[in-house]
Request: fold
Amino acid sequence: MDGLQFAKEPAPFVITIFGATGDLTRKKLIPALFSLFLKGNASQFKVIGFARRPWTKESFQKEALSMLSGSHFSHIPEGQKKAFLEKLDYVSSTFDDAAGYARLAELVKPWEGKLFYLSTPPDEYEPIIRNLGGVGLNKVDSGWSRVIVEKPFGRDLATAKELNEILSSQFEEHQIYRIDHYLGKETVQNILVLRFGNGIFEPLWNSRYIDNIQITVAESIGVGTRGNYYEKSGTLRDMVQNHIFQLMTLLLMEPPNDLSPDTVRTEKVKVLKSLRPITYKDIKNYTVRGQYAAGVVDGKPVQGYLQEEGVAKDSKTETFVALQVHVDTWRWEGVPIFIRTGKGLGRKVSEVAVTFKQPPLQVFRNQATDGGQNQLVLHIQPEEGFTFHINAKIPGYTTQVRPVNMDFAYGDAFGESTPEAYERLILDALVGDSTLYTRRDEIEASWSFITRILQGWALDTDPLPQYRAGSAGPEEAKALPASIDQKWRKL
Ligand SMILES: NC(=O)c1ccc[n+]([C@@H]2O[C@H](COP(=O)([O-])OP(=O)(O)OC[C@H]3O[C@@H](n4cnc5c(N)ncnc54)[C@H](OP(=O)(O)O)[C@@H]3O)[C@@H](O)[C@H]2O)c1
Reply:
């Protein structure tokens, strides 16, 4: 399979959604499948919902219609929705009941392509995997069989390895698709095109010219009704191990020789394996965590994390993380990578800022302003595109320098709405392209680094720094960049 460059035309397939009555199916999976159907990327197919609730085929179809009620589909004729709904079927069963899988096998076996989507709580992966193997649905003798596994994929290195063992007891690695929806985002994929499809960036993309890189993924909302889930997770597990590390590896990897899934992922793994470990003794120098306290977000007063439903009053779960990481490679030696992510912050924004070094001789240094360092900012959310901050002369009789922006906005340049991440990723799994999915060694390498930090934090008895909801995070994070020239970008 040749990876990212191929047009997508899946063979006839059946997709089984384990957890079909759940939130992700409602919000993302059914809308994504409907979009693929509308765009003609899926014509001969069936969708089977599998969950505990005693729904029937008809009630699943009725529920699915309500899942398509968003404004996105309001202009779509009812006839097309009906044609899609006719492809839906439902199996009501618990995940550990072999009889349910026997019924499923009858529906699924005639199809050449079989995709199983595990959209369930992680504790449920094991019985599903084993039962699929039990009825032979993992076999590829006639056609193909693939499984998509949702996040979270483990909660530390040991549990991620355990889950990999369970999966590999029934499926070959090429059948396993570990999803990270960040990789389905256009702007994230554009990092590869920006770096390797242009001649001007790559010669500068190293420690000779780059001063530091900052990755920010900030959310203004708090944990809301998901306090229970968040207590078991925290920001490091929820955001850094997966989404942010995916961004980071795309930014730092060496140019791949081709775009095949394994070539791209091998380069990404090399980055993760080159991360300098942060052990207990470095915890205070390279990591800052915090919890949001009561504050004001978008003009509205909000409560602190400890007051949220489902959160322990003495919780030490972090809702904010800032890290300074180093990648010990020839290319990146001496370039700090600053990572900052959290909830209850002043703004919802995801971006990457690459700050370049000053010119060797700063000839404008004695002017009122020398404009500062060049910066390339990749906007991921809410705007999509990038901005180049360069310096220009202010018109007039004196030589005053000021930074100006060169902007590229995705919407302006291409004028079309970008496909939803889940749409792209499901389509890739249907055509057998795993480039944008996480390989086993990749997930284990990222957990290996993250687990050391978790172990260091577990030994740290200091109270967690608090930050006012609606602010830029704890004060302690400001001091993380040790050099006075390296500052966080304003949120
Ligand atoms: N929701 C999101 O926005 C989101 C985003 C990213 C990743 N994810 C991941 O996606 C997965 C699903 O999340 P979700 O929010 O959709 O979860 P959810 O709303 O809690 O849904 C869980 C689903 O699993 C079914 N289920 C649970 N235990 C079962 C059992 N023993 N037997 C049969 N069915 C069982 C439930 O069926 P019944 O309700 O019929 O009992 C329901 O369909 C999770 O791994 C989550 O981390 C979710």
Observations:
- Residues 183-478 form a domain with the Dihydrodipicolinate Reductase; domain 2 fold (CATH 3.30.360.10).
- Confidence is low (pLDDT under 50) at residues 1-6.
